[in-house]
Design a protein that fits this description.
InterPro entries: DUF2922. This is DUF2922 domain-containing protein. It comes from Hathewaya proteolytica DSM 3090. Pfam families: DUF2922. The structure is a single chain. By secondary structure, this protein is α+β, with helices and mostly antiparallel strands. It has one domain (about 1-65). The protein is about 20% helix and about 45% strand. The chain has a 4-stranded antiparallel β-sheet, with helices on one face. The protein starts with a strand and ends in a 9-residue tail after the last strand.
Length: about 70
């Protein structure tokens, strides 16, 4: 099972985009996510086809599990 943080942003052109971070810690707080997103926006380090990240839109932690299915011949 793995967890992934999905941070959702609006660009300066009003389009939605997201950044995914894999393997986030179990006790990640809302404040830590907000701080990270504010830092990403403030750095202007990411530019998408739809423009520069301008505003936080939302965030979620996605928890996934994988089950292998094996076949015998």
């Amino acid at each position: 099972m793995s967890k992934e943080l999905v941070m959702q942003f609006l660009t300066d052109a009003g389009s939605k985009t997201s950044i995914k971070v894999k393997y986030v810690k179990d006790n990640l707080t809302k404040a830590e996510v907000q701080t990270a997103m504010d830092s990403i926006i403030g750095s202007n380090a990411f530019q998408t086809k739809a423009g520069i990240l301008a505003k936080k839109s939302g965030a979620k932690i996605v928890d996934t599990s994988t089950e292998e299915i094996s076949f015998t011949e």
